[in-house]
Amino acid sequence: MHLTVGPYAYDVHKTRQLVHPVTGISLDGLIDFATTTIWIDESVPIHRRLDVILHEYWHAWRHHFGKPENEEAECDWLAAATMQFLREWHLQGCEFSLGCLDEPQNNDARRPRLRMVGKAMIS
Which residues in the chain come in under a pLDDT of 70? Predict the structure, then answer.
């Protein structure tokens, strides 16, 4: 699955035993801003994948565009993010795209070793 956040392109991949690089706590999802990758733990059931992907997607919007200054700016921010996500979600087959994460080419073979630097994850 591929998503864009404004002009930034992100890939979504599944992986085994996803943990926070600093705390070691098990995670359902993780975003790596340095490689523009969203990781989903393989233990997340298909019916929860969209929730996890959207959670990480909002992190990406906030990382790239900051926090809106007021209610109007926040509504514009949310509308832009929602429309972009829905457009891509639709073009990739909606629910079908969640199942595609199970295909062999979407495994964790390319998973980098991550470390935290400030707010960013780097390899």
Answer: 104-123
Q: State the SS3 of the chain.
A: CEEEECCEEEEEEEECCCECCCCCCECCEEEECCCCEEEEECCCCHHHHHHHHHHHHHHHHHHHHCCCCCHHHHHHHHHHHHHHHHHHHHHCCCHHHHHHCCCHHHCCCCCCCCEEECCEEEC
Whole-structure pTM value: 0.78
Which tens digit of pLDDT belongs to each residue from 63-74? Answer: 999 988 999 999
Helices 71-91 & 46-65 angle (0-180, nearest 10): 130
| Tokens 């087959």, located at residue | 93
Domain boundaries, the chain: 2-122
